Amino acid sequence: MIPLLVQLWLYTSVILNYGLVFCHVLQESLLSSASGYSNYRGILNWCVVMLVLCNARLFLENLIKYGILVDPIQVVSLFLKDPYNWPASCLIIVSNVFIMAALYTERRLSVGTISETTGTFLYLVNLTTLLFFPSATVLMLTSITPVGGAFALCVYTILFMKLYSYKDVNMWCREIRHTKARTLTRSHSCPSVAQSNGSAVHAHVSYPGNLTHRDIYYFVFAPTLCYELNFPRSPRIRKSFLLRRLFEMLFFIQLQIGLVQQWMVPTIQNSMKPFQDMDFSRMIERMLKLAVPNHLIWLIFFYWFFHSSMNFVAELMRFGDREFYQDWWNSETVTYFWSNWNIPVHKWCLRHFYKPLMGRGVNKWVAQTAIFLVSAFFHEYLVSVPLKMFRLWAFMGMMSQIPLAWFVGRFLRGNYGNAAVWISLIIGQPIAVLMYVHDFYVLHYVSQS
Amino acid sequence: MIPLLVQLWLYTSVILNYGLVFCHVLQESLLSSASGYSNYRGILNWCVVMLVLCNARLFLENLIKYGILVDPIQVVSLFLKDPYNWPASCLIIVSNVFIMAALYTERRLSVGTISETTGTFLYLVNLTTLLFFPSATVLMLTSITPVGGAFALCVYTILFMKLYSYKDVNMWCREIRHTKARTLTRSHSCPSVAQSNGSAVHAHVSYPGNLTHRDIYYFVFAPTLCYELNFPRSPRIRKSFLLRRLFEMLFFIQLQIGLVQQWMVPTIQNSMKPFQDMDFSRMIERMLKLAVPNHLIWLIFFYWFFHSSMNFVAELMRFGDREFYQDWWNSETVTYFWSNWNIPVHKWCLRHFYKPLMGRGVNKWVAQTAIFLVSAFFHEYLVSVPLKMFRLWAFMGMMSQIPLAWFVGRFLRGNYGNAAVWISLIIGQPIAVLMYVHDFYVLHYVSQS
What we know:
2 copies of one chain form a homodimer.
Chain A: H1 2-21, H2 41-66, H3 72-79, H4 87-94, H5 96-111, H6 116-140, H7 146-186, H8 193-198, H9 213-221, H10 239-277, H11 280-317, H12 334-338, H13 343-359, H14 364-387, H15 393-399, H16 401-411, H17 414-446
Helix pairs in contact in A: 4-7, 5-6, 5-7, 6-7, 7-14, 10-11, 11-17, 13-14, 14-15
């Protein structure tokens, strides 16, 4: 018995020593492509840390150089020149007129007191006025500030898209009612499509029943541009979710204002001289310097607007569809970016512009180009009118997306495509911003002095 | 037939219109935690783009401010003061004496002409001399530069670890031979463990057959610190792999030198004044400014040394085990980082220090602390001796890892732990660098003037 135990112990010792003697295995390094390794989760944290530290330094440098420039009261003066005169707010209140006009047109159309042609004509008048009235007001009123004007025009543009959708959907509903009526007279055995579609939804609204004040105002405030008779609703308001989004909204708006005042304004002011002197290397240096705060503010704006604010409003209204953006950060083509970063607008374009155009047999590329054209028009509209300065930089910026999209789609794949999209975002915006600011500066300050 | 077709067309139209009418779905936003979405692959590209652009700007700013400071010829002067006197190279050539001493000691031990105790004593003398001889030379020779000295000491430290491993493994082999001899005399039926372990390997070497010049020099040049009789070998030298690694080696070494000359040196020079005046906010600003280039250079160094260079050498020597690092970038604890970023050293510590200590019944925490102590000693040794200035900053930097490891392990989990590791890396290094540079500057320039 004992010799066996000793032998066993000796074997164990041999095996243990062998375990120590052999310590290398035939294998590839992780970073070699042959290893197939791809877990770089830590790199994300690294980026966050690096960005925080880099910006902490820039922040400190900025503070040492300029002192504290953040001034929340100053923001008010951007909206109001004269505290007794609130032109932008008045403009927004007036917008109710257009909402009412749309509702009453629809009511007339639903009972058939006016024809479809008259309806279309009334809408044409209503929607055209909706675009031209505020822009004319902003251009003529001297008491309106550029920021106030831009805000009012944004509200009107959103309203324009919403009412256009309202018109289309109600028209489709009338078409369905018409078709159903015709099929029902022809054959009594046809099953009701509406019934099978909406049976599970509580308090299901069908066509003429939706033409109420309550319904149209819910749509106007809802975070979507596409009208639907029965929006999906979330079961209840989650209070903690609501409070978190509210906190984010308040925090990020402050952060954006602070970053603009402390970081962008001094950088832009410093870049005016190189741009006037056309000192090329310094111009690029300034542009790259501006790119970082501009891009960060845009990212914060994205999160603030598309995640915090829209989710806040949606939660408050128990609006169920929270798809306000898709994973545009992974986009490998320019087209993917544009169709995923702003889902409300993309959905609207697809439903009320692209598909109807395609239905009329228009070529796919022509329809896409048309969307970019319309988008470019609205970008220009929202910038030029408030600044009272027509330069077409925003228009050209949007239109340049078409050759860019072609180039990226043609030559770049995967991560290279993604990097190209990011570069166009990071570099493209500050160029446009500097263009407008430069022209605005030359127009208002150089010509006066 | 025709009425049926018409009816079918009408149904299709109804369904198509329904598809248009319904366009919202009950769903969460991607960034809400409820969505469960986690694909942020694009963020990685964003980081790369942002880092490239930020650094492009810093590069341009740096160029405008300082002009071109990169000077490859200047690097040579770091190694050589006097072109006719190459002390560091001479030191490295002398190191062959120690290799030979180890080999001949082992040969005597294998045939039994000297006892194990004599062998251990000879090794003690050999290895102690190996550490003290170069440091004494570096401290006494005035013609040696700090960089040349550090390089020679690194070579000697690596050699120390290799020869220590050589001694251990050969000792284990003698133990195995001894045990096998004893078991074989006792029972002839025992199967050969060595046979079953190495049967598949071509030209398998067993114990005394490994004590050749060829074998020890292969080990000295192989990218590992752990000796093994039969290293796993890759089947062939992949030429394209070799060329890529060679190109990376040449490119990254140039990049590192360029970054040091163009970015670190001006930043360090500018930070001397705030550090002398003890201007606290500027000191932090300078430290953060230095953190970025220092960290980037460290990252490039990591890739250059552990991926490019080691893989190059391994490919050239057909050395199979390419695990020179693990995924330390994902490390959530300080301990994980230290045991994964430098696998050769970690493997050595585990095999020749930690496991033998544990085998003698030493507590796990005591053994870990001992490893950090030894590591701290070598860090200090490699910095203080070439600078001829004993300040203990490197020693304290390494020793501070123990409380840091405890803190991170105790309070931070997941991504927070990972971020803490990154912060300690990004911030810790430049503090130590600035400490040494500041003291070196005060010692050599302020005292002279």
